[in-house]
Structure formats: C-alpha cells, structure tokens
Specification:
Layout lengths: L14 H28 L3 H7 L2 E7 L7 E8 L2 E9 L3 H19 L7 H17 L10 E10 L4 E7 L3 E5 L2 E5 L6 E2 L11 E4 L5 E5 L7 E2 L4 E2 L2 H10 L5 H16 L8 E7 L1
Antiparallel strand pairs: 1-13, 2-3, 3-4, 4-5, 4-8, 5-9, 6-7, 6-10, 10-13, 11-12
Helix pairs in contact: 3-4
Length: 276
Amino acid sequence: METIATSSVLKPVSESRLKYLELRAKELEESIQYAGSLQRSILPNEKLFKNAFDDAFVMFKPKDIVSGDFYWIATYGNDVYIAVGDCTGHGVPGAMVNIAGNTILKQIIRQKDVSSPSDIISLLDKELVALFNDNLTVGQTYDGMDIAFCKFNLKTKKASFCGAGRPLVLVRDGQLIEFKKGPSSVGYNDLVVKEFPTIEIELKKGDQFYLFSDGYTDQFGGENIKKFNRRRFRNLLLSLEEMRMEDQKEELELSLENWKGKYEQIDDVCVIGVRV
C-alpha cells in the first residue's frame, strides 16, 4: 500500500495572541532600557577623572543596553583609586555582577586600614563570592570579574596596581610598559588559594596609564576578519602619546569603528586613560 507523507502545518498566531506578545516584548524592552539608565547613573562622571589627573578620558561602549563592564573612581585623602571591571558575560547577567562589584568597592574603600590594592581586591573577591553563594541551597554560581585596580598618590609620586585578570599599560617617553595581570580573577574559580599581588610604580610627570576590558582587543574585523588583538592595541596607544586625552579617545573610537566595519560589536568595550 502506498503511503503518503504528511507534514505538520504551523497554525497562524491569532491576532489577540500576537498583540499580547508584542505588549510583553515592549514591556521587556522598557524594563531593560530603565535598567540601563539605572546602571549608567551609578557610573562616575568623566569629570571626576579629569579633576583628579592632569588629563583623562573614559571610553565606554556597551554591546547591549546594559553592560558587564564598569569603570570606577574614588578618592580618600591624597589617594585616588581607579578601576575597570569586566564581569562574567554581558547584557543583563553581566550588569547584575557589575552593579554588585561597583557597590562592594564603594563599601570597602570606606573601611579604615584598607588601602593596598591587593587587600581591596581580596576583600572584593570574598564579598562577591559570598554574595552569590551564601544563600544557595544547591550548587554554586560561577559569577565573577576580571579587574584592573590602581591607587595613585600624586603628592608622593607613587602608584600601585593589582591586576586580577586584567593588565595595566603605561606609556612613558616613547616607551610602552605593560604590567601583567595576576594569576587569579575575582569571584568563583577552582583555586584553593588565590593570589592578588600588588605592583609598586614610581610616577614620572607625563606618565599615561591605560586600564581596559578585553572588548576592544577581542573585536573582530579588518580585511581577514581577525581580532584587533593586544599587539595592535599597544601600538595604537603608543602612537597616541603626544595627543590630548580627549583626542586619544576620538582616535580609539575611530580605529575601533574602522576595524569593526560591517561586523557587529561582540562585547562590551571600556578603556580609561589618565595622565599624571
């Protein structure tokens, strides 16, 4: 007997169901837009960086409405603390870790006898792990962040750096110096004992420091659709040394757009530059 193959036919969505879905999509978009405005409201004004240093810029380009990257600044006496954090994921999940990290840092910096970047990052690590895991009944979250954290004292001409998963770049007198990232990131990982070493730096007038997430260097583009990569990024920073910081920001934005071309932005992008 000959059999006739039949295929299922998708039924059209009713008009009432379609309107319901459109309404839910609009409500969700409005909620995310509002979350994005709340997130931006807790990020420091770029003027704070320009007031603390001889010159500075902040380049911040979220992939989505909300971001997993954040930048941060605080002053305590003669010390100026700045940081760039790159949280797990991007979009809404990254933004939740972002806000938690930003808030915890503000609390830590107010504590007495906590001024070393390594001590601050160690406390941030413990607080972040506890925040996402203490109340779990099953399993463990794997949320965390990479962060470049610096302390500057412009009176003593000294700085210190702790890189939990992120490096620091210094451009000085036509030379580029990269301070490597530490072995541990903030948040959950499999290490029993984490290391957050501090690197001490003697400052020289005109030094230019750059803290950044991996969004810029990981962006795909160019003729062969490759990552921008760290070597190309370092060479770009070195070529901008003689420019004002605001002009450097414009060049960084232009270079990223030219590299990206028709391809979409794949991650959040955050770069801070300061001149002492």
